[in-house]
Amino acid sequence: KPPDGWIKGVTSFLKPGEYLEREVTSVADLAARLGLQYIEYLKFDIEGCEHEVIRSLSTLPRLPRQIAFELDQPTPIWSCEKTLRFAMSLGYKVTAIWGLNVLMQLS
After folding, report:
1. 27: closest CA among 75, 1, 64?
2. CA pair distance 105, 7, nearest whole angstrom
3. Distance, CA of 53 to CA of 59 (rounded, Å)
4. pLDDT 10s digit of each residue in the chain, 107 long?
5. CB under 8 Å to 35, separation ≥6 — which residues?
6. Of 4, 30, 61, 68, which one has the fewest beta carbons inside 10 Å?
């Protein structure tokens, strides 16, 4: 079991009870490190951690105009709906869906 505060992800190739430890950074920290004032388009596919990234977008000084991501399985459908509703509460609207992939744009 991962320690509290860890995100369980990358479930597609791990056996039950196995976890992958990697250093991570937030979108806000990465943008600051790269000196970005604004992110026009943010694409991420991070095996189940998309939900945490979308929730963290509210910490940015300015939201990306477009975000594209995959709602990874085995994430329960209610969690996917909650994530989409949160993004919509930030002002995003769904502009395209293909398979489990979603494109959202600020309205």
Report:
1. 64
2. 26
3. 10
4. 445 555 555 455 667 777 767 777 888 888 889 998 889 999 987 777 788 889 889 888 899 999 999 887 666 777 788 889 999 999 999 999 988 889 999 98
5. none
6. 4
